[in-house]
Amino acid sequence: MKYLQKLVVISLLSLLLMPIHEGNASTKMSAIELAEKVANRSSNKSRVGFMHFTMRNNAGSERKRSALVVHSQVPERTKIGIYFTEPAGLRDTSFLSHDNSASQDQNWLYLPATDRVRKLPSSSRGDYFMGTDLSYGDIKDNFKFALEDWDFSLGESTVENGKTYYQLKGVPKNELIKAEIGYASFRAKIDSQTWFPIKIEYTDSDNAPLKEVNVVALDIIDETWTATHFTIDNSQLQHQTEIIISDMRAVTQVPTYLLTADELAYGAPLMLLEDKS
């Protein structure tokens, strides 16, 4: 009798556990699904604020820079303008990025010393931006991984303080893309509640460790998660860039004529700071 009772209990437990296991298997997220959640993370249509850069080398010296940043997102196009305001020697140096879903991306740089706007080739995506440890491509990607650039895979997920973190890995789809972006791979720790990468490790084109990005502070700005404090540590150059975002807020809209190559030489569009919406 005791044997039969044990058998019944074991059978009932098996029936109860089977749907749970099957449910977990059926809802397991694939690498591309995770990458899409990161890429499709909501963003403000228009926002403006300041970026403050602190660059440190292994000797302990520091350089500081500040810039007005303007972000505009319309269907099939994202525009980012960065206008340096400090120090005086960099004032009015400006960078503009047009990320087009239907055509090739375009980037421009304005240097007051030459008084001309220069269109950057696509091969410059991996170049360092104005002495920082960010590349031009990093700025354009804005903590997202372009689906057209990477082949994705999953690493082992972890649970910390009751929160799940996924591990997303990527390698460039081909050698041309690898040469352009300057990375052979990345590994990112993704917050399952925000779909934001809070840590990204990159290797260089030879697959040697290159740099690590760590998000120190993540805040909601107009219902959108935004990294307001993060660091980039370059192990090869023994150099660090710390970035703090201040006074970032949504604006009603950015006039279409502002974020264009023709307007880049006119300096920071300070009129947007007057928009109190």
Explain how this protein is built.
With 277 residues, the chain is of the alpha+beta class. Helices cover 17% and strands 44% of the residues. The protein has four helices and 14 strands. Strands 1, 2, 3, 4, 5, 6, 7, 8, 9, 10, 11, 12, 13 and 14 form a 14-stranded antiparallel sheet that branches. The longest helix has 26 residues, at 2-27. The termini are far apart. Mean pLDDT is 86; it is low at 6-26.
Task: Give a brief description.
Helix content is 17%, strand content 44%.
Note the beta-strand portion: 35-45%
> Stretches where pLDDT falls below 50 for ≥5 residues?
6-26
Radius of gyration, taken over Cα atoms and rounded to an integer in Å: 23 Å
Oligomer kind:
single chain
Helix content: 10-25%
Q: How many DSSP helices? A: 4
- What best-fitting shape do the alpha-carbon axes yield? globular
How does the helix and strand content classify structurally? alpha+beta
Distance between the termini: 76 Å
The helix-strand sequence is HHEEEEEEHEEEHEEEEE
* Biggest pleated sheet: 14 strands, antiparallel
Mean pLDDT over the full residue set: 86
Q: What's the β-strand tally?
A: 14
